[in-house]
């Protein structure tokens, strides 16, 4: 029997009352629909302000609803993807910052199951692969099993590693990825820019001296720092007020641990910020890597002590830069991109490809501020970014 019809039979055997007890709409056939409704439902709860609780996060009652979904997702294949995604996005941390280990493991297992309940065989046509969002299912299963293998200290560790490796071998059989996937020798190597820029250099971390923007950021560090320090020194938490005018929504970090202050996003300058830090904005406006780029973005990002960012993938075709503007504890805070680690050293820039899996930790006691820049990939052919594509 064809896989798809097998699933439909399976789904029709699911008692419909099992699917009706959720507070979001559920389809008996279409798992992408369920992913959409479930994520929207929990997302609203996740960001809704709640007295006395670090946000964004779910409270204990809301996590019980996630728990109900987790159980149903094992029983009903059509909920596997919804469960995987909700557990990954909203069930990773408690509001206290504690990890919910069983949710992370279930998310890995359910992303993997969602591969088999949808038409996501590597041999299928790219249209089917694309329409079923197969890359999300595969890459997240790989990401999470790899993370579990790196962080688990029990006898399960090798089983997770084996899963990650098997899934990696699977995704490498996808025809569209074949020209580049031979370079993916570890689960951490899977990335999207190497597919977009096939045949061009792909690296998790680019040497700062290799791209002009790296040196430029470092040369102007003292100016950025003086203007940022002046804002931080203003009485009445002006920095916090600025963030509130334009709040960011992201699910990646320990609740309350990571926040962004927009400078410019997709060419929309945050004018109130630019009035307070005029030279910073004027300087950024001189760089073609940023301003000639459709998907440009520049933020201040504060990382509070004790914060961790779960492993995640960014979106191509951009590259990212961090300039450590205020980073007083270089030995205690850093990021991992694929299998490479970097610490934030004040005044230094890190250029990285955020389409590789990456994550962040801060073990120190003082906040760290970086300027985060999304700029054009040097091998991008569609924007006048004025960089040279390296040959190796
Ligand atoms: C969680 O939030 C909901 C809705 O805001 C509320 O009804 C519920 O009592 C809260 N639960 C806890 C444990 O705070
Ligand atoms: C473009 O790059 C060249 C070489 O790095 C540099 O001399 C020139 O000033 C740049 N142009 C702009 C508009 O930044």
Please give a structural write-up.
- By secondary structure, the chain is α+β, with helices and mostly antiparallel strands.
- It folds into two domains: 3-196, no CATH class; 205-376, Jelly Rolls, CATH 2.60.120.
- The chain has 17 helices and eleven strands.
- It has helices at residues 3-13, 16-20, 31-47, 60-75, 80-90, 101-117, 126-131, 134-151, 157-171, 178-181, 193-196, 212-219, 221-233, 238-245, 271-276, 278-284, 288-291; strands spanning 205-206, 258-265, 268-269, 297-303, 308-312, 318-326, 333-337, 340-343, 349-352, 358-362, 368-376.
- The strands form two sheets. A seven-stranded antiparallel sheet has the order 1-9-6-11-4-2-3. Strands 5-10-7-8 form a four-stranded antiparallel sheet, with helices on one face.
- The model is unreliable at 3-12 (pLDDT under 50).
- It binds 2-acetamido-2-deoxy-beta-D-glucopyranose (2 copies).
- Residues 212, 288, 386 line the site of one 2-acetamido-2-deoxy-beta-D-glucopyranose.
